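User: quick one
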Amino acid sequence: MRIAELSRRAEVPVPTVKFYLREGLLPEGVRTSATQAQYADEHVARLRLIRALIGPGGLSLAAVRQVVAAIEQPPATTHDLLGAALAAVTTTEPVADHQRVHELLRAWGWPPGPGHCSRHEDLAAALAALDDAGFELPEEVLAAHVEHATAIARAEVDAIPTDSATAAVRYVVLGTVLLEPVLLALRRVAHQELSARRPGQGGP
Amino acid sequence: MRIAELSRRAEVPVPTVKFYLREGLLPEGVRTSATQAQYADEHVARLRLIRALIGPGGLSLAAVRQVVAAIEQPPATTHDLLGAALAAVTTTEPVADHQRVHELLRAWGWPPGPGHCSRHEDLAAALAALDDAGFELPEEVLAAHVEHATAIARAEVDAIPTDSATAAVRYVVLGTVLLEPVLLALRRVAHQELSARRPGQGGP
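Assistant: Done. Structure below.
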């Protein structure tokens, strides 16, 4: 198909398609003349992926580039895959205090080893923000987050496809990014439903 | 204290403090002359809260204004509180298809009533993004998200303070916003730890 049909099928304006081509997010089509090229179904799929990552996924162009690269060039192991996915979506600046995170990890049964601190930046920053805001997190609430985040991650890791490396990368990278808004939206719907059913919700 | 000390104690530059004053996010101090005012500890706390909401919380100034308003003027019920918190942090544009969300809610045991659709926008958008990206979500993974998001929300709603409306608002609004990065970071740490321990992680 030509670029006009690609644009129509992917629901992305032609100038935007050209921008993604220039940025290397979308592979070149097969040139048929100096000004024309032919595109395939994989280009439609890639455009939909880019739009989902930028829109609901909330990724920057640079992060989309990393995700696309991870999908095209699968690293060797599941663990490396997750590392690539995390690197693509982690933007937190280093913070000073990992003490609290390390205590939490020990209590969680995952004592921190040497050289693993980069993975804990987001968690350290998120916990520090609670303190900065003067928010006192009840212990049982943190414990519920730890327990159930682990259960969710276990279901996700167990479902990593084993039939091909490409399918595994695709699942891990997209699942890491695109299931975050799903999880947060489910939690908020549950808040609404549970608080509507809470005894005494008629008012304090 | 004067504005210079307020700035120092809250670790926010004086021009930024003045900006928040002009924007109405920070209450005025007590005027002591045409050009000077005195500030109290509550101003330090408010500044830390604003910084946490804008930084790790990822809120816009408009959303911070809504959160601050919700904290200052508590609505009547727990359910209203959650509504105010959600309104402050929900930015999704309406999407057409709520069919899938309503099916999910029915399976979840929470059949959608009339007029409740605005709460489902985020979830509908998040699920639509999976389809747009061509991501096939395994059923057991969605089931795990639903089950454990509910368990987390239950622990959070159960821990809403009952001693004062102000404490309840503060907990609900800040907890809704500031625990999101905590939950996502915990999930990612769990991914890393679980995949490192996965049988056969030496490579596909």
